[in-house]
Specification:
- This protein is mostly helical.
- It folds into two domains: about 90 residues, no CATH class; about 450 residues, Na+/H+ antiporter like fold, CATH 1.20.1530.
- Helices cover about 65% and strands about 0% of the residues.
- The chain has 29 helices and two strands.
- The protein has a two-stranded antiparallel sheet.
- Helix 7 packs antiparallel against helix 8, helix 11 crosses helix 14 and helix 13 packs antiparallel against helix 14.
- It is globular, with a radius of gyration of 25 Å.
Length: about 625
């Protein structure tokens, strides 16, 4: 019988040393999940296949790793898998009280993790960056140089200063840095990335033309595929049962009426055609998970509003809202880009949706059986198949006149596949495929926002259009706020909680950045006339304006939550590790990717020194 407490688990690992491969004993465990099966580690995150496990072997506990940087098992203490753990614990116990290094760890712990002693001497103050942060920054810098070397070897002079490929490379690097600066200024990182793209465009540095327009379109479609797939993977149907009708009312009614309001205002204020107004309404009605969800995570970790499940309700409603918007935007877009008559295109809309549903369901059912769930590489194969399949669906649907079918197929395939995987052992806290797409989104976020910022040409923007666009945006938000308060009146929320729920819908960002350039990219790809390209550009400018006006409001959500929501008492004693695992079920914290778009330590991101020693 294997003990599940820390002491028993430590004894089990110590007694079994010598039975593992030598490379495992000499290094920290760096895999996502470690499930024990007899004397052999099973890296797949599943129990060992019955045909491969002896009946005499004990049934070991299933372990899940919280922090990829720490590479430890939450059932064990952080350094128990490293050699000499008992000696380190003894030396740590003898260290003077309060003796810590950067990152909140003791000198013995940091040295055991490979931190140079010179760094410990130079960064003894707790506010100094940890060796892990510094090493990560150096790693990114080296990766950037190597990537440029690869581009130079393939592109030649176009990857040298002055070439378009080099300019795109500089755009990505500076967007990443701008994201860090914006985060330090308490703004959503996407704002810094977008402004950096606009800066490079209007200073004459960034100019994309020729065949590189297709590269830009491909990168944007890849980012859209990532958002569509993540939205489908992270939506749990159990939330419909958990929150019942209030979730449907909160996710659908405010979005529907905001979209209708924006469509009306776009027609009579901006002068856009009806179809463009409907497309703009669907685009702006979606929530911004990259802006709001990290703030809601922080509030939930600090027990604000948890007595009524307010953060969890908003997150679930935001996920459902994104699903509806992402699935619906392709219908008006298909009609807009169609060369047929308007009514013929409208009648073909349901056909496109049916085609998308059929392809997506077929693809999802295939991924239920392929690859086999006990395959050693099952998680990476599933992520590759989902990503490549979704990209092909988006690209080919636009080529063959089924623009609305691609997004529906991409989302439905991911949803069906993930629903099947949940029956095979996936859960809210354990979804390695979703973690892969979270990391991919971290890499694609600077690409998406910097490229749409690069579409801003200040010399061609009319000041009157900015004022009218702002009126349309705020008009839609006002209607949404009123409808949200009305919808939440049937629930036992006080006026402060209703106000916070309404405020959480204000920020726009991720979905808008993905959908906004779609019409412009397809207009260029299908070689539409100049009038269509000009309308698509104006449409994109309104979407960018919505992001710039509303995304900074997301930085006020933590402050508003602490003022408007009541702090629930702890129902039971719970460690910080357990809290992060529970909240991380919804998205970024479990994978270590917060909305900056960079790989960070999720625990230290929100709790600083309090969880740095985990």
């Amino acid at each position: 019988m294997v003990s599940t407490n820390n002491k028993g688990a430590t004894t089990m690992v110590s007694d079994m040393r010598g039975t593992f491969p030598e490379w495992l004993e000499e290094s920290a465990c760096s895999v996502d999940t470690l499930a024990w099966s007899g004397n052999e580690p099973n890296w797949r995150g599943h129990e060992r296949h019955p045909s491969r496990q002896s009946s005499s072997e004990p049934a070991p506990p299933h372990h899940h790793m919280l922090d990829p940087a720490l590479a430890c098992n939450p059932m064990l203490e952080p350094l128990d898998l490293l050699p000499g753990d008992h000696e380190r614990k003894a030396s740590s116990a003898q260290a003077p009280e309060g003796s810590v290094v950067s990152g909140g760890r003791s000198p013995s712990q940091a040295t055991a993790r490979g931190c140079p002693s010179a760094w410990l001497a130079a960064t003894s103050h707790p506010r100094c960056p940890s060796w892990m942060d510094a090493a990560r920054a150096v790693s990114f810098a080296v990766i950037g140089l190597v990537l440029w070397g690869v581009m130079y070897s393939l592109g030649g002079t176009t990857a040298t200063p002055g070439g378009q490929l080099f300019n795109l490379y500089v755009l990505y690097v500076t967007a990443v840095l701008a994201g860090y600066v914006a985060h330090g200024a308490r703004l959503p990182p996407l704002v810094g990335m977008l402004l950096m793209g606009a800066l490079l465009r209007n200073t004459g540095f960034l100019s994309v033309s020729g065949s590189y327009l297709k590269l830009v379109t491909f990168l944007r479609r890849t980012a859209l595929m990532t958002i569509l797939t993540r939205a489908a993977l992270e939506f749990d149907p159990k939330n419909l049962e958990r929150f019942r009708c209030v979730l449907l009312r909160l996710a659908l009614l405010p979005s529907l009426l905001e979209a209708a309001t924006v469509a009306l205002l776009a027609r009579y204020v901006l002068g856009l055609p009806w179809l463009w107004g409907v497309f703009l309404g669907i685009t702006l009605a979606s929530a911004a998970p990259a802006v709001t969800i990290p703030s809601l995570f922080g509030l939930q970790l600090d027990d604000y509003g948890t007595d009524k499940d307010i953060p969890a309700l908003i997150i679930a409603a935001s996920s459902l809202d994104d699903l509806v918007s992402l699935a619906a935007f392709g219908v008006p877009l298909s009609v807009i880009l169609s060369e047929e008559g308007m009514w013929a295109s409208i009648l073909r809309g349901p056909i496109r949706v049916i085609v998308g549903l059929t392809v997506g369901i077929t693809w999802g059912l295939l991924l239920k059986y392929v690859p086999e769930m006990y395959d050693d590489y099952v998680h990476i194969l599933r992520a590759l198949l989902l990503g490549l399949g979704g990209t092909v669906m988006l690209l080919t649907s636009g080529e063959y006149g089924f623009e609305g079918a691609g997004p529906v197929a991409c989302m439905m395939g991911a949803f069906i596949a993930c629903h099947s995987w949940r029956r095979q052992g996936f859960s809210e806290n354990h979804n390695p495929v979703a973690n892969c797409f979270a990391i991919l989104w971290g890499l694609m976020q600077p690409v998406l926002f910097s490229l749409i910022g690069g579409e801003i040409d200040l010399s061609n923007i009319d000041g009157k259009m900015i004022l009218l666009g702002a009126a349309v945006i705020y008009g839609g938000l006002l209607v949404r706020m009123l409808i949200t308060v009305w919808v939440s009146s049937g629930v036992k929320f006080n006026w402060k909680e209703k106000a916070f729920i309404a405020m959480s819908w204000f920020p726009k960002g991720t979905v808008q950045a993905a959908l906004g350039p779609t019409a412009l990219d397809l207009s260029r790809l299908l070689e539409q006339d100049a009038a269509m390209v000009a309308t698509s550009t104006s449409f994109l400018h309104v979407v960018i304006l919505a992001i710039l006006l509303t995304a900074p409001l997301g930085s006020l959500l933590p402050l508003a939550g602490r003022q408007l929501l009541s702090r629930a008492p702890h129902a039971h004693a719970q460690s910080d590790t357990e809290s992060v695992v529970t909240v991380g079920a919804f998205s970024e914290l479990a994978s270590g990717v917060v909305n900056r778009g960079f790989i960070v330590d999720p625990a230290r991101e929100w709790h600083g020194d309090r969880t740095a020693s985990l």
